[in-house]
Each structure stands twice: as structure tokens, then as C-alpha cells.
Amino acid sequence: MTTRILHVVTNVGHYDDPSEHPTGLWLSELAHAWEVFAEHGFEQTLVSPKGGAVPLEPRSLSFPNYDRVAKAWHSDPAKMGLLESTASPDQIDSAEYDAIYFTGGHAVMYDFPDSEGLQRITREIWERGGVVSSVCHGYCGLLNTRLSDGTLLVAGKHLTGFAWQEEVLARVDKLVPYNAEEEMKSRGALYQKALLPFVSYAVVDGNLVTGQNPGSAKETAQKVSARLRSA
After folding, report:
1. pLDDT tens digits, one per residue of 94-106
2. How many helices (H) and strands (E) does the chain have?
3. Which of 74, 168, 181, 224 has the highest CB neighbour number within 10 Å of its CB?
4. At 190, which CATH number?
5. Which residues span the domain enclosing 175?
6. For a pLDDT cut of 90, what percent of the chain falls above it?
């Protein structure tokens, strides 16, 4: 049977002030993972909290983030078309997917954490023995996901995601709505990060696979693929 991956992307296009601070999907985090999964022959689908169009983070379209893989996606009408008509959670049957992968960009801090539809899909994939994964701010999508017994999925789990130090270095610490690293720790997660900011770093804890920052997307997808192949 074909392995199927569900990518989660955002519908939000701005911080709290829409006129001055646009944001959205960090394109390379989707594009790199998509390329890795495609090389393995996996089928891939996009879902967003509300369904429909996905805005792009402007900063992800400039050097050094706008690399070969991101450019290839951005210049491909078919791929860009996928971002115009994503599925909504109620259109997704979790039983059809072997893994879920939460992409990032600061936008996801707003619409991922409290999406009951995404929480349902994540819980069902996890409890069926599937892989739950995220990269960068994508781990905000795991903050409030509870299992059938009421416990938080992330409690007691080793994981990573965009570090507060990286928020400061990126000069967005005054813009973000909360400190994601601290929020994750407050939920009992065993947060880890690389010794240096912005280097590729990914953590595997059973069927939970997480990457720290945009540069970790390829490594995260590779570890997800390895987990799926060993299942």
C-alpha cells in the first residue's frame, strides 16, 4: 500500500497588525519535506485549519531561505495551485494517512494551536500508530492536542521547535503572540535545541519527529521517512 503524508499549512497572512507585518507559510519547510517524501514515492496532501488559500511568508522568499528547492516550488504553477485550494480538516479521513507533518512560519502560532479539526486528525493518526511530526513553528500545532485519555500528546516527550533565542535573533520576539518554547515546556514536553541557532536539528521520540528551524525541514522529513519505512 502507498504511504500517505498529510502536510498542515496555515491560512493566516499577518501578525496582529495586518498592515505592517505580513507572515504566512515558510515555503522551504514545505518544499524540502515534499521533495524528500516524493523521492520515497509517498502520496501527499495539504490541509489547513480553514481550508482554501495559503499565504506565503515574504521573508521565506529571499536569500538564504529562497534556495533551489523553494524556488522550484514557487515557479511551478501546479505546486502553487496546491496552495490555493487546500483541504479543511473536516474533509480529511485520518485513516487514509500514515503521518502528519506540521509546517511552520510565524502565522501558524495563530491558527494551529486551537484547531479542533487538526487536533482530531493528529490524535487519530497517533493512536493508530502513525507518525506525528513538525518543523520550526509547526510544533505550535501540537501544543493543545490531547489523547483519548485526556493527556497531552507532548507531555513527557522529547521534541524541538523554533527556539526563543532564534526569535530574538530573527528580531520578531516583540511581534510573536507568545513564547512557543516556554509554552511547550509548560505542557510537560522535554524540549531540546541545538547548541547553535539556525543549524539543522531534529529529534525523534518514538513516532514523534520534530525539527527546530527552517533549515531542519529536510532532516526532519528524512527521519519521518525512516520511521515510516521501519514500521
Report:
1. 999 999 999 999 9
2. 8, 8
3. 224
4. 3.40.50.880
5. 4-230
6. 95
